[in-house]
Amino acid sequence: MVASQTNRENSAPRLLDLYRTMVRIRAFELACEAAHKEGKVTGAVHLSIGQEAAPTGVCSNLRRDDVIASTHRGHGHTLAKGAAAETMMAELYGRATGCCGGKGGSMHIADFSVGMLGANGVVGAGIPIIVGAAQGLRLRGSDAIAVGFFGDGATNRGPFYEGLNWAAAFGLPVLFVCEDNGWAATTRTTSMSGGPGIAARAEALGVPTTVVDGNDVEAVDEAAASLIAEVRGGGGPRFLLCETYRLKGHTVHDAAPYRDPREVEERWTRDPLRRARDRLLALGVGAAEIERLEAEEEALIAAASASAEAAPWPLPAAAFDDVQDNGGAAWAN
Amino acid sequence: MVASQTNRENSAPRLLDLYRTMVRIRAFELACEAAHKEGKVTGAVHLSIGQEAAPTGVCSNLRRDDVIASTHRGHGHTLAKGAAAETMMAELYGRATGCCGGKGGSMHIADFSVGMLGANGVVGAGIPIIVGAAQGLRLRGSDAIAVGFFGDGATNRGPFYEGLNWAAAFGLPVLFVCEDNGWAATTRTTSMSGGPGIAARAEALGVPTTVVDGNDVEAVDEAAASLIAEVRGGGGPRFLLCETYRLKGHTVHDAAPYRDPREVEERWTRDPLRRARDRLLALGVGAAEIERLEAEEEALIAAASASAEAAPWPLPAAAFDDVQDNGGAAWAN
Amino acid sequence: MGELSYLEAAIRALRDEMRRDPLVWAVGEDIGRGGVFGQYRGLQEEFGPERIVDTPISEACIMGAAVGAALVGTRPVVEMRFSDFALCAIDELVNQAAKNRYMFGGQGRVPLVVREPIGLWRSSAAQHSQSLEAWYAHIPGLVVTAPATPADNLGLLTAAIRCDDPVVHMENKNLWGLRGAVPDGDHVVPLGVASVIRPGRDVTLVTWSATVHDSLVAAEEVARQGVEVEVIDLRTIWPWDRGRVLDSVARTGRLLVVHEAVKAAGFGGEIAATVAEELHGRLRAPVRRLGGPRIPVAYSKPLEDVYRIEPARIAQACFELARAAAA
Amino acid sequence: MGELSYLEAAIRALRDEMRRDPLVWAVGEDIGRGGVFGQYRGLQEEFGPERIVDTPISEACIMGAAVGAALVGTRPVVEMRFSDFALCAIDELVNQAAKNRYMFGGQGRVPLVVREPIGLWRSSAAQHSQSLEAWYAHIPGLVVTAPATPADNLGLLTAAIRCDDPVVHMENKNLWGLRGAVPDGDHVVPLGVASVIRPGRDVTLVTWSATVHDSLVAAEEVARQGVEVEVIDLRTIWPWDRGRVLDSVARTGRLLVVHEAVKAAGFGGEIAATVAEELHGRLRAPVRRLGGPRIPVAYSKPLEDVYRIEPARIAQACFELARAAAA
Ligand SMILES: Cc1ncc(C[n+]2csc(CCOP(=O)(O)OP(=O)(O)O)c2C)c(N)n1
Ligand SMILES: Cc1ncc(C[n+]2csc(CCOP(=O)(O)OP(=O)(O)O)c2C)c(N)n1
Ligand SMILES: [Mg+2]
Ligand SMILES: [Mg+2]
């Protein structure tokens, strides 16, 4: 496994772009949290607050025709891959104009038009899917690649293992991205895991692994850029392990009493947005420019929320659409 | 991972015992093969011919109250754990006196009275089961241990991964024994596997691994003895990787045309029985003694076959027994 | 007689059984902090981490390990969190747990309980809302329970834990907060025994789990217009209480089965078919089923509601059945 | 019109579709050497290892990868070897493949076929003999096919491959060697259309897969004594051909469903319940089902045979139904 090196000349414009995406995700998540409190967004909602850097750094190196699979915590991946906040927010509000027409909600957010093949309600289930997407892309003769995001908790599931082995055995164009936030719901993942860690597991399956500070968006960006080039170049699968932290509860319902408040407090000091912002300032970007960017993104999300709220609800009849061509709607009882 | 050292002073009596078990397994398998040809034994039958050393070497270090889980290729494990050839053969003949009353057959051979908790028709499925058995034994305060046998092909299944992680995370008294015969049905396992190999995978999951020549029964015996002592001593799980070969087809129906005949021929020269026999002779054991032992075992198996053939078939009504206490037989329709 | 919630009743059942029998233990993700619904609250504090066992996210191994632990004589209670996640452990449940006793000729027993919360709940969408009791009823070797009340959750979970065979215990996520009277002391609801929770002469309504409550509402409603519905809470799906259902339909001549699960190939088909087979000549109206449409559950409320069976629809079906009687 | 075995018909279906559409491919263990039953014989030679893809023993990943590959526009044909092993991939099939189209609001399609060989076969015992078509019929999003003849295996597998939704194609292990006439050229059996393979006025017998043949034997037998049975091979389990079945029963007034799967909560319940619901007033006898007892399949012949439904039992049931008519 290779520790990522940093080389950050002339990086302000790039970092501004990355920061913009992170700010968008954060604003989206905060709006979502607030809307949930008001009962406008319902169900289990898992926020990416604190984990914005990994989706941002990785997806900023992808093409639109590259595909990704996500997890229950999928808003960040979806936005980073280029989905519109508006249709996403409409989805969370359950409206007809939502990217899934209101059928998915947070746990099944997806935007196939930008190659975001879906969040998933089943931990780890996206991994075999993304591996197969890579196989399908190769069969089609495409040079698009596939990226699978998942959490540390998912690395204890069989499909993680089968998926990595599969990708390695077939030399598939997949990048695996693990956002290791240390926790799987109320459980510390290391307390339930044997062996030296996730990187060693991936390596033992033949997937070369890079470990990176997952709260340093530039580090993620840089590592992802080179891994994605290797994957697209036919080098077979790669694994990027991003060390990060979930700054909020597991879901919006979770106050996370099982965590030491000092741990959380300390982690806030490593907030990826704050770090990127400090670094922008250090690189000489003016506070005014940063604030303008922040305001723009906040306005964009506010508009998305307003538009979602004004959007029409799906008609009940839509519940019978898109089940299947044979034996679907006509068979409704 | 530790390469097994050999230290074979005064080993003739021990080796004679081991050889006896291997001869018994071989004779059983040959009888079974013949009976299958005659249509007396039916269904899919997977023979252990060529793989007698691993079950023999491992089980000779187990207590009766230790438990094992086996695979589709389970006759050797069952005999080595101490089951009677007679009830086993009766099972394969489908008779009422069989160890499973005729319900299991080859793929579900089991003898709980000697701690043999079952062959399994599903590759890898025995692994979580044996891990749980270890957990149950610990909960009961027993110092018995659990041993899981499986093949190389099983190491690509999720339950293998989940099971090893589980055992490591909980520090359970399990010995994992992989009989790596190179093949999974018609597929060379290495052709479908990423990474450096099975041992690296087990180590990455926190299970210390020993690799041994699985056709050298003394080497297996010695390695198993020390690993089992560690496991029983509370050291947590251990992994024994036995390199071996299946000298016959995958099932009795399989002529194995997908293998190079020279590969098979070469492997016959490393037949574990032949090696043990040569070594006994080298240790000064007389040919007559060896032949007497062989004749005894062959007679025992011949008697088992004869007795199986004479045994009664199960009554059809027995098909309704042992389904479940509530909603079983009384609900038969 | 105290009052407990459905969730508290489950805690009491498990706690009492764990006190009674040191070989009873529970295993599942996050249960050390009380479990995802709080249904293990306080138990790790009392019984420690060796008996209230947190696990990795490894459903297949959770279930498989429970099979092994059961084979050596312990009594694991497996938590699957949402019944949907049990789909990651189906080989272990169906090929291993359910068949073990039979396939090895009765050498072993697999006294495990799998808790699989079912049902629509709070915009949970397609992968957190399923009710697959019909699947397990189809599998030889399994017992299937689905309590509708706190008392039955106490009594059936207790019975499940004491049962020597694998039991799939399907609690309904929407009922966790439901409060109700619960007997003091040892309370066991025998497996396979339905409960007539409202007597009636006109229509036999068979149901279980959350739809029991909707059915009662509907029964009250139609009673105001003179139709008396006998509501039978099946409680155990396998073995189902055929005798009690047939007796009732023999009297009323009319059957309505109501379940939240998809109607197509749902367990209502088994009941309706059995009644039609056994009581054809005594039926005053055709048998009838209400179940979910054959669509996944959607997130958005207006779409989710399409899946839901409201008391009004149940009442309507009862009226129609009763009217057919007159004809 | 040529003659092919059921197995050869499947090879032809897959070969022709792979020639027609370069995005059709197959994936499963050992299929490069022809597959465990020979049902992929010769295909890797023609299409190479990138389209006839051997895999690790990783059922969950086989199925999950097929979902992903389908989402990007290819058409994978998944081989599960024995339907029993598909139980290692149920999350992938039921939570992922079946729900994808719906839960993402129609953004994606999952045009995959899962081949799941079913049925009793050669002393295969509890873990290699199951028929779980009822499970899949219960799952929104899935199509389920179960051909009984070479021509239908050709036509249904072709239809399954061309279908834009996931199809569970359940071939019967006992029928691989069965020979029969097969149309030349493009042969597609439409999904959801049953086939009346024997007309009759007295009893409607609905069946599928291997029991089609036992049912025909029984029908001939009872015909010799004047009872004319209309045998309907359902062919597609979901969507089942309700119209054709109801039309037939409307004429005969008698229904017998025969399937090898366990009777309890089997798909026969759906059919019998539907007929009882829809045609109660026109039934001349109670609906009737024959299915496996709710026991695992045992190895030994006398025990295995207890599970088996022989033509004699089917004939007996037909007589009883016809006699009830007279009454
Ligand atoms: C197969 C499965 N098991 C359990 C769950 C319940 N669950 C949802 S998220 C989660 C924790 C996942 O942890 P991790 O993979 O680290 O992702 P994170 O939540 O930290 O982003 C669990 C256990 C599930 N959705 N699917
Ligand atoms: C889950 C599952 N997949 C596939 C099979 C079919 N199958 C039976 S044995 C076997 C090969 C197993 O190989 P390995 O684990 O190396 O054991 P060996 O046969 O070499 O002893 C396969 C694929 C099965 N029984 N179970
Ligand atoms: Mg995590
Ligand atoms: Mg092998």
Structure write-up:
The complex is a heterotetramer, with 2 copies of chain A (333 residues) and 2 copies of chain C (327 residues). With 333 residues, chain A is α/β, with parallel strands linked by helices. Chain A is built from 11 helices and 8 strands. Chain A has a 6-stranded parallel β-sheet, sandwiched between helices. By secondary structure, chain C is of the alpha/beta class. Chain C folds into 2 domains: 181 residues, 3-Layer(aba) Sandwich (Rossmann fold), CATH 3.40.50; 132 residues, 3-Layer(aba) Sandwich (Rossmann fold). Chain C contains 11 helices and 14 strands. Chain C has a 7-stranded mixed β-sheet, sandwiched between helices. The longest helix of chain C is centred in the last third of the chain and has 16 residues. In chain C, 72% of the residues are buried. Classes of the chains: A alpha/beta (333), C alpha/beta (327). Chains C and D meet through α4, α5 and α9 of C and α4, α5 and α9 of D. The site of one magnesium ion has 6 residues of chain B, from β5.
Features of this protein?
heterotetramer; A: 333 residues; alpha/beta; 6-stranded parallel β-sheet; two-stranded antiparallel ribbon; 11 helices; globular; disordered N terminus; C: 327 residues; Rossmann fold; 2 domains; 7-stranded mixed β-sheet; 5-stranded mixed β-sheet; 14 strands; 18% strand; binds thiamine diphosphate; binds magnesium ion
